Amino acid sequence: MTSSTRPAWVLVLLALAQLIYALDLNIVFVALPEIGADLGFSGQTQQWVVSAYVVFAGGFLLLGGRAADLLGRRRVFVLALVLYALSSLAGGLATGQLMIVVARAVQGIGGALLLPATLALIGTLFPEGRERNRAFAVWGGAGASGLTVGALLGGVLTQAFGWSAVFFVNVPLAGLVAVAALAVVPADPPRATGRRFDLPGALTATAGATLLVFALVQGPDAGWTSPGVVLAAALAVVLLGVFAVVEARGADPLLPPSLLRNRALLTGIGVTALYMATFGTLPYFLTVLFQTVRGMSALQTGLAFLVPSLAIAAGTQLGERLTGRFGARTTLVAGFGVGAVGTVVLAVGFGGGYGAVVPGLVVSGVGQGVTWTAMWITAATGVVPEEQGVANGMASTTLNLGNAVGLAVLIAFAGASGSRAAVLVAAAGMAVGAVLVAFARTAARRTARDGDAGRPLNRRARVR
Questions:
Q1: Which of 15, 17, 105, 126 gives a 20 to 30 Å CA spacing to 224?
Q2: CB 359 within 8 A of CB 349
Q3: What is the mean pLDDT of residues 190-211?
Q4: Cα separation of 423 and 419, whole Å?
């Protein structure tokens, strides 16, 4: 394999990894009723098959990003895929509730390692600018495809072979990508001397983030004043407060202070949270509309998601071109603005059949794809290679938190005013995002880790 062809193959593997990650988000939803019936879950407790993944994925993202920086991005990438394969095998073989919930939790940890490691590999192997933008577009397109493939494949596998097949399918996929990565992805450089893992920071950040995601996920179902939710939220606040103190005093902190001075990264972090609190909540309400209101089967629902997924995939490619021509800030404003218009059209169509929502699905999907590509380009701008992992871990953490907060708020709003009103609120949030980004100061300095961990290099990166 020549040096000119290797980047293309590396990008193929990173895109496949994102396809697996996105596929797993949707594939289990389709099989959830069968899992609940076969393993004896009640209607409320079967949600833990989903929640276990969400809680641990959200809680371990920052740790996963730091591990990629310190232990090696390829090593963590391969480890994450191996965890995915083994936990998927365990999930498919599960004969009881505890076994499948634990398997899903381990899958979540695998996802928390995989996402920032993949993003860090893109950020370090592809030069900032056109090449990296293109890589993010291909990676994002694969993720959009995974959402459709997950829904479709989940319906087909569950009907043909039973719910365990939705777990078994991950085993060969993750295993093959892990083996191929050892041959294609460049080996990790030697570990830098004098770097420490910051165990106190890792423990407090991971435990605090995990408890916070747990409280946000469980709050809508268990009640925000239930003892478990209140205790989890209180402990999360305490642990994250301790984390802030540890980081301020640490010699080699889990969260380097230089990253908190990178305005592009901070903008990207804010955008990822708002993105998932708005765009990221739409699949929930669409699933309710298709299956509960319209009475579609799992397979029909998967087919219904084909239209928005294709629109999102097209938007990711458009986002790369717009960012290269007009800059990330302008592209983000356009993505949020188009998404807001499309989501309003989508809400208006909720009262009709599937054809009535298609125009909104297309326009909103394009806006979503444009925003997705531009926000990851923004988050990676001006970050030195040795901090790409933790930077993307930060952005990925707010991605999960934004989704948990957005769903909690919009589900509560839907309960009081209906799903259409909740979708309109999501559209309003996108419009707010366009305004905030338009006025954000997104100049970013490229910083180097030296004696004070904050001296800027001569070269500067600017997100227009």
A1: 105
A2: yes
A3: 74
A4: 6
